[in-house]
Amino acid sequence: MASVTSSIRLTQYAAGGGCACKVPPGELEAVLAGLPLGRAHDDLLVGLDDGDDGAVVRIDGDRALVMTADFFTPVVDSAYDWGRIAAANALSDVYAMGGEPLVAVNLLAWPRDRIPFELAAEVLRGGAEICAEAACHLAGGHSIDDREPKYGLAVTGLASPDRLLRNDAGFAGMPLTLTKPLGLGVLNNRHKTTGEVFEDAVRTMTTLNRDASQAALGAGLTCATDVTGFGLLGHLMKLCRASGVSAVIEADAVPYLEATRASLEAGFVPGGSRRNLEWVRPHLSSRVSDDELLLLADAQTSGGLLVAGELPGHPVIGELVAGGGLLLSVR
Fold it and tell me: What angle (nearest 5°) sits at the alpha carbon of residue 98, between those of residues 82 and 62?
């Protein structure tokens, strides 16, 4: 089936875009601080405590459920590609916990009086294609009439309780591996502003984190998170805080998509990336420029995994070091 072509630019119907439209991390943590942590009994293996990528509930000795929900406003103008990106991003939370997606349901908000509903069908088609690639059942969902278009998935997966990837399992001396290049935030911001299409960015955002997750589990690793709206520095800080360690990042080792630096120099920086940097700055020691830090804090959509340990074929960008002072050192 061919994609529906349209002159409608979906990114123009939303104030933000992709994971850059997340609630700022500092504000979110202030809200969550007043809520019960949700450890009703020992079978809730991962709850709200450390802001991990998904909740995990033990079913029995060999199986645990991994649950997550993720949705956002259009990050690209293509309805079909947006559906693919949003689905891959939602599934990533299950992979980041070391699970395999089992079943998902659609979450769709659509301004029926502003955008033809045939484009919503393209969004759903893109999401269904990614779920099929992941061998994840897609069964129904929920839709509402809304002023801004939004799409994503609620996903349930399966994992082994004894073979999870968690953000609280890191320890000093472990190398840090990044499985996708950075730059998605500034490239998506440039696309929203100019309409330019960056095929390598779309390809990166629609690539499942399944293989990286399976490789980490196969290597016996236990600590990981995915890099999305809070940027590399933000998600690394959450991992360090949960694990009681600090981290050193080698800026020259971090990979970027091709047009990233030119886009930064041209001023295409999403507000979410700036907010990420301000959030981590009190815990940051750096020998690099603020421009470099902005890229390291860039709000990614459907980014890669940040794994404590080495994965063949992916760059080591730093290491975890002793100290629970939440100090992120960039050099």
Answer: 130
For residue 88, the one-letter residue type is: A
At 255, which amino acid appears?
P
The tokens 């630019």 sit on which residue? 9
Q: How far apart are CA 274 and CA 55, in angstroms?
A: 28
Distance in angstroms (rounded) separating the CA atoms of residues 313 and 307: 13
Residue 273: name the closest of 10, 54, 16 by CA. Answer: 16
Rounded CA-CA distance 310/22 in Å is 30
Q: Are 18 and 72 in contact (CB under 8 A)?
A: yes
C-alpha distances out from residue 29 to 32, 155, 245, Å: 5, 23, 20
Average pLDDT over residues 12-33: 66
| pLDDT score recorded for residue 15 | 80
pLDDT tens readout for residues 173-184: 999 999 999 999
Judge contact between 256 and 317, C-beta under 8 A: no
**H or E element: which one contains 91?**
helix 79-96
Q: In angstroms, what CA-CA distances link 139 with 65, 107, 194? A: 17, 11, 36
Average pLDDT over residues 238-246: 94
Is 240 one of the annotated active-site residues of the chain? no
Contact between 167 and 243 under an 8 Å Cβ cutoff? The reply is yes
Which residues have a Cβ under 8 Å from the Cβ of 218 and sit 6 or more positions away? none
Which residue in the list 19, 21, 136, 240 is annotated as catalytic? 19
- Kindly report the pTM of this predicted structure: 0.92
Q: Distance between CA 208 and CA 204 in Å, rounded?
A: 9
143 has which bridge partners? Answer: 108
pLDDT digit string, tens, across residues 103-139:
999 999 999 999 999 999 999 999 999 999 999 999 9
Which two three-digit tokens encode residue 192? 């929203």
**How far apart, in Å, do the first and last CA atoms of the chain sit?**
49
For the chain, give the number of residues. Answer: 331
Residue 331 CA to residue 321 CA, distance in Å, equals 14
Q: Are 217 and 230 in contact (CB under 8 A)?
A: no
Supply 190's token pair.
């440039």
Name residue, tokens 């020691």: 285
